[in-house]
Amino acid sequence: xxxxxxxxxxxxRAWYYGFRVLCGLIxxxxxxxxxxxxxxxxxxxxxxxxxxxMLALDPDAYSTRHYQDFLTNPDWQQPLWNSVRIxxxxxxxxxxxxxxxxxxxxxxxxxxxxxxxAILISPMIxxxxxxxxxxxxxxxxxxxxxxxxxxxxxxxxxxxxxxxxTVTATLVGFDRSLTRASASLGADPVTTFFRVQMxxxxxxxxxxxxxxFITSFDEVVVVLFVGSAGQKTLPWQMxxxxxxxxxxxxxxxxTILVAISIAxxxxxxLLRRRSERLRGMSPG
Amino acid sequence: xxxxxxxxxxxVSGPTPDTALRAADGPMLAADxxxxxxxxxxxxxxxxxRALLLIAPLLIFILVTFVAPIADMLFRSVxxxxxxETLPRTVxxxxxxxxxxxxxxxxxxxxxxxxxxxxxxxxxxxxxLGSRLxxxxxxxxxxxxxxxxxxxxxxxxxxxxxIALDPAWEEPATWTALMAxxxxxxxxxxxxxxxxxxxxxxxxxxxxxxxxxxASAYAGFANTIIEEDGDSPExxxxxxxxxxxxxxxxxxxxxxxxxxxxxxxxxxRAAAEAAQGFESVPVIDQFxxxxxxxxxxxxxxxxxxxxxxYTAGYYLAAADxxxxxxxxxxxxxxxxxxxxLFKRTLIMSLTITGMCILLGYPVAFLLANxxxxxxxxxxxxxxxxxxxxLLVRTSAWKxxxxxxxxxxxxxxxxxxxxxGDRLQLINNQLGTIIAMTHILLPFMILPLYSVxxxxxxxxVRAARSLGATDWTAFWRVYFPQSVPGIGAGSILVFxxxxxxxxxxxLVGGRTGTFISNRIAYHISDSLNWGLGAALGAILLGAVLVxxxxxxxIVGIDNVKLG
Lengths: 284, 562
Hints:
Number of strands of chain B: 2
Largest sheet of chain B: 2 strands, antiparallel
Radius of gyration of chain B: 38 Å
Largest interface: A-B, 95 and 94 residues
Number of strands of chain A: 0
Mean pLDDT of chain B: 86
Mean pLDDT of chain A: 87
Number of domains of chain A: 2
Number of helices of chain A: 12
Strand content of chain A: under 5%
Largest sheet of chain A: none
Number of helices of chain B: 29
Structural class of chain A: mainly alpha
Radius of gyration of chain A: 24 Å
Number of domains of chain B: 2
CATH architecture of the largest domain in chain A: Orthogonal Bundle
Order of helices and strands of chain A: HHHHHHHHHHHH
CATH topology of the largest domain in chain B: MetI-like fold
Low-confidence stretches of chain B: 1-7
Shape of chain A: globular
Oligomer: heterodimer
Structural class of chain B: mainly alpha
CATH architecture of the largest domain in chain B: Orthogonal Bundle
Low-confidence stretches of chain A: none
CATH class of the largest domain in chain B: Mainly Alpha
Shape of chain B: elongated
């Protein structure tokens, strides 16, 4: 596959290039919808398609008015502020509890490990609409429905499986003799954890945290049910915008979110390489 | 080296491992003298405890914030306490008195309904109950709403007759003297003096033997007055249905009243004698006057069928069945929507999974066989959509697929379609399938890629060197080894697809929605929570079975992210 041998027949050549064109089209299908919204978000008009002026690359056909709308309109600023208030707190909650539990789970003797793991992973398996429905019923019983902490706890629960998975995966490659060495040199378990274990599993913890953060920051189903108007987040506002009065500001917000995801993707990729390097595996 | 005796191994005074070994006959001992087995067990137990203590906070957190809500949902899908709590007397009466389900029940049941309904109406619960029963039989909601206003007229003629006989029957004090227990009256007096809430009403001992229905109806009245209005029954004239109860008790068994020795016995005996002469108005006629829907045996059948504290009714409804007095039946054809919706969810999820295999396989194959540097670069094209917000991708498709959107514009520009009849690409099944295939494709490519990475290229080379054609080498050697990847990716995509809500909601229109959209509708719009919970429970069951399969094939520990 890597290169076409010089003796390849015409059929093989046709297949070789045909296959690459096919894959190119699929890659195009994957990436084009995300790319296409970027120029559209600079549309000077309220249309969702390329105006003749834009196709002619007329500078007047482009503007940043949708971005200005996003930055000044309280309909968007309040949800942005809510998202910024909810996602980091939910992330801290899932990372703190998740890392602790992952360390516990990676010990050699854990009773009911399989069952515990299944319960901890379950928020990732259960369809969001079911989680949302159950949380709506239960949180209204206990008075958490429509509160800030209700949304934070729900989002933390959804983020925990990602923290568990990434941190346990990092702990698999962790050399236990390091903690024993630390203990034999007189460090108590807390010091050992923070000075020896934590720096080594940090890449896993951070990428788990990023997953938890993006889960909360991007989450809309659960917050629709568990939250009230006071906890309206950015995705919620986008959802309403898409369902009711679709405004081009959504594309500006979408472009900003794409930029954020590119940044996150870069961080996760760098962390992955660092972690592989630390474990002595060659980075890709 | 001069003073070895102080630090040498033989100079240690306490027990050493050696000591244990030297105790040749007994069990092997640890350094501190305990048997080694016990010592090791203790160490193991401590280790287990430590691990559990580390896990405990998260486990408790997940149990409270996630598992309890799911359990609550499952409970709500069978829970049906509203009927037996709102109409307790009617439920019992129907059970005992109503045999022939083709005719309306007898007077006793109607009287019980009068006591229940007036109490429910005063507590403003009759409309909630009406909405609940309306899920089963249409029209009950309005019947209950109308009856809530008229129910206080039932028994009015008896009230007038009793009061005409002796004005004492109008006095709240007469009633409390007759009905309330000694202790309750004392406690109520104390509470009244202190300005506290009144205690829960208690009927006088023995009065139930003489006036069973009246005691029950009056207790209902008294507690409603106390709990809802914060007033004292000692200051309120009873509702008219309480007089109906009194009339029914006195006429049913007038001789027994002679044995009554409690307070107000003379008044009661006089009333018992006079009640025989009152003009009798059948309760059933009084109900008919409120609403002739009460003569419909189907209404009573529905109440009887749903009188249990738990019901399978929501699950039956989710399977387009209904519980009738005659047993389980299919819904009328125009109301059979859930099987259709389940079938559609299933077929569309399978289509999406199939599309993902078709599109994902070539890409994964290419990525797995390219040099690492190139494939890592191309991998970004897969990972970027994976990391991009779901709403961003959905809004992109909404913009692209619109009739005035980019794709239709391009098609018109090329000349494939005329400007007049642009393609309907969104708000139908096609829109959902396109958008969801795009959204779920990375979940297919990533597991496929990781499996294909493990297929040694030498196998295909060996097949080729043995004379296989390119196709045979691929189909007979490479493809079978990549099947686990297809399995893992398919189950993952399918699990995600059948539970999807946001994308079908936004691009699915009316025909492209899934069962999850119906669940959301029942929870936030129709407020039929029980049915929403039952649909959710069925969906959850399906997902768990698939997940279990996934765990058996792939193993949950092998889930990799990014």
